């Protein structure tokens, strides 16, 4: 992965840390087009009382609003945790070109860990997906968050 991939994932980790600081599960997402951020978000379902307020959805809404289009065919998303089925579906519908996530999520991951929404046979768009970039840093945030809640 490139130097810019590391920079964008580092930004996603900063957003995840912000989520953790306000009591949300620490997940951050950054959407990039032409090496510029067009959308970013952090988990907000607890504070917003909205089960769809995942980091990816917040970032997608911001990016689509910024672009004036619900499709982002050249965009890349950097996420600190493997997307769930809802978020993977939203990335497919938005026609995001590439998804890079840090840590796998064995219970709800929909990019290969539990299921792989990106490789369903009849889906009309393929999101290129890569994982593992800054995995340890993201995993540490998640583990610390849940350990401190027990």
TrEMBL record:
Keywords: Hydrolase, Metal-binding, tRNA processing, Zinc
Organism: Methylophaga aminisulfidivorans
Family note: Belongs to the cytidine and deoxycytidylate deaminase family. ADAT2 subfamily.
Catalytic site: 56
This enzyme's EC code(s): 3.5.4.33
Enzymatic reactions: adenosine(34) in tRNA + H2O + H(+) = inosine(34) in tRNA + NH4(+)
Binding site for Zn(2+): 54, 84, 87
Protein name stated in the entry: tRNA-specific adenosine deaminase
InterPro entries reported for this sequence: APOBEC/CMP_deaminase_Zn-bd, CMP_dCMP_dom, Cytidine_deaminase-like, MafB19-deam, tRNA_aden_deaminase
A Gene Ontology BP annotation from the UniProt entry: tRNA wobble adenosine to inosine editing
Domain CMP/dCMP-type deaminase: 3-114
Molecular function, one GO term: zinc ion binding
Assembly, per entry: Homodimer.
